[in-house]
Amino acid sequence: MVELKNVDVHYKDGGKGGVDALHNVNIRINDGEFVFVVGNSGAGKSTLLKLLTRELTPTNGRVFVNGYNLSKIKKRKLPYFRRSVGMIFQDFRLIPDMTVYENVAFVLRVIDKSNKYIRQRVPYVLNLVRLADKAKVKPTQLSGGEQQRVAIARAFAIDPGLIIADEPTGNIDPALSYEMVELLKDINKCGTTVIMVTHEHDLVQYFGGRIINLSSGSVAFDDYIEGEEDEDEGE
Ligand code: ADP
To answer: How do beta strands 162-166 and 193-197 pair?
Structure first.
C-alpha cells in the first residue's frame, strides 16, 4: 500500500522563501492498483516519486510505502524497503558492458538471491517481456523499446510490491509506448502495484483507469476514467 497523509514538501533553496513543491497531498493507492500520475512540468511529480523512494522526506505529513513508515524508517531497514520497490526510468539505466541476462541477474545478486533462483528467475522475466532470444546481447545492440523492456524485466525480477515507472515511454518510439504500458499491465496482473508517471495524454486516454493529476503541488484530480481500450472491447 502507498499512502501520503497531509504531505507538504518545501524546498528551502528554491529562490526567495523557497518553493512549496507539494501542498497538503493525500493519496492512497491499494495493493494491486495501476495508477497513472500526470501533471505539467513543475507540478510536483518528481517530488512525489522521491518521497515514495525515500530520497526525500516530507516537510510535514507522513508517507507509507509497502508497510514502511518512511518518516520513521531506520537506516538498517532501508535496504529491505528499497528491494520492495522496482524502478523504471526514462533513460533505461542499463549497465552497458553487461549482457541483457547479466543486467537482470545483477540486481538479484545484489540482494543475495541464490544462483539457483537467479537461473530460474532471469529467463522467466526475460520471457515475460519477450526478450528471451536477446539474453546474450549487450544493451547497445538493442532498440530503445527493447532496452526499456529489459529495464521492465529488471524491475520486476526482484518481485517488488511496487513498481514505479518514471516517464518510461519518454525515450522510445511513440508507437511502442502502448506496448510498454501493456507490459506494465501484465506485471500488474501478477499482483504488483504500478505507478506510472507520464505526460502522454493519448496513452492515458487510451488505457484509462485511475488517474492522479498533480497541479501546482496539489492533487487536482484523482479518479477513474474509462479508456478507449474498454470502448473497443465493448464493440
Ligand atoms: P515535476 O516533476 O512535476 O516537473 P518537480 O517535483 O520536479 O515537478 O518540481 C516541483 C516544484 O519544486 C517546481 O517548482 C520545482 O522548480 C521545485 N523544485 C524541484 N526540486 C527542487 C529542489 N531540489 N530545490 C528547489 N526547488 C525544487
So the answer is: parallel
Domain coordinates of the chain in residue numbers? 2-84+161-234, 97-159
Distance 37 CA to ligand 1 centre (A): 16
Name residue, grid cell 478507449: 228
Q: Quick check: CB of 15 below 6 Å from ligand 1? A: no
Record the pTM.
Answer: 0.96
List, in order, residues 6 or more apart from 173 with CB less than 8 Å away: 143, 144, 145
Top-tier CATH class for 2-84+161-234: alpha beta
pLDDT for 148 equals 97
- Can you tell me whether residue 111 is helix, strand or coil? coil
**Ligand 1, closest atom to CA 44?**
6
Ligand 1 lined by 191 (C-beta under 6 Å)? no
Asked if residue 6 lies in contact with residue 60, where contact means CB atoms within 8 angstroms, the answer is: yes
Q: Read off the pLDDT of each residue in 15-24 and give the average, rounded to a whole number.
A: 92
DSSP assignments along 29-55, one per residue: E-TT-EEEEE--TTSSHHHHHHHHTTS
